[in-house]
């Protein structure tokens, strides 16, 4: 371990290494240099998911974990267009879809996504819903 608890260290090659506990792993750019940070997963997803309590519509996600497709069942019919955004663990948008559903169940085929955890955001005019899904 080169550093811990938020400390950073610059090694002889000029690379700066930071390692902390309690931070979500990220990859990005800073000052035109590649920066890779690694830590134990503790993301903001839980705060997004907790915001679902404000929604009038209840959404059930199943199966979760899933293999190829995942279903979102709404407690009320939704006639408006539904926007689906799926993000990987570092926050990159990996899937986007807009459409309507004739029933109260929206099925999304995610066969092409690799096995991982994802954050889902469903948006309708009257609500925004978040959930975590796991592809196995």
UniProtKB/TrEMBL annotation:
Residues 1-15 have a biased composition (Polar residues). Keywords: Signal. Residues 16-28 have a biased composition (Low complexity). The lineage of its organism: Bacteria, Pseudomonadati, Bacteroidota, Flavobacteriia, Flavobacteriales. This is Secretion system C-terminal sorting domain-containing protein. Residues 1-29 are annotated as: Disordered. Coiled coil: none annotated. It comes from the Bacteria. The keyword Hydrolase does not apply. Residues 62-134 form the Secretion system C-terminal sorting domain.
């Amino acid at each position: 371990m080169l550093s811990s608890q938020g400390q950073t260290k610059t090694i002889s090659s000029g690379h700066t290494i930071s390692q902390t506990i309690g931070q979500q792993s990220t990859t990005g750019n800073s000052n035109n240099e590649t920066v890779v940070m690694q830590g134990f997963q503790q993301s903001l997803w839980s705060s997004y998911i907790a915001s679902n309590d404000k929604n009038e519509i209840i959404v059930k996600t199943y199966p979760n974990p899933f293999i190829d497709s995942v279903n979102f069942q709404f407690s009320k019919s939704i006639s408006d267009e539904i926007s689906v955004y799926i993000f990987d663990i570092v926050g990159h948008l990996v899937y986007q879809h807009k459409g309507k559903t004739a029933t109260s169940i929206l099925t999304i085929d995610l066969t092409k996504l690799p096995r991982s955890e994802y954050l889902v955001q469903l948006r309708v005019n009257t609500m925004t819903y978040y959930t975590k899904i796991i592809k196995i």
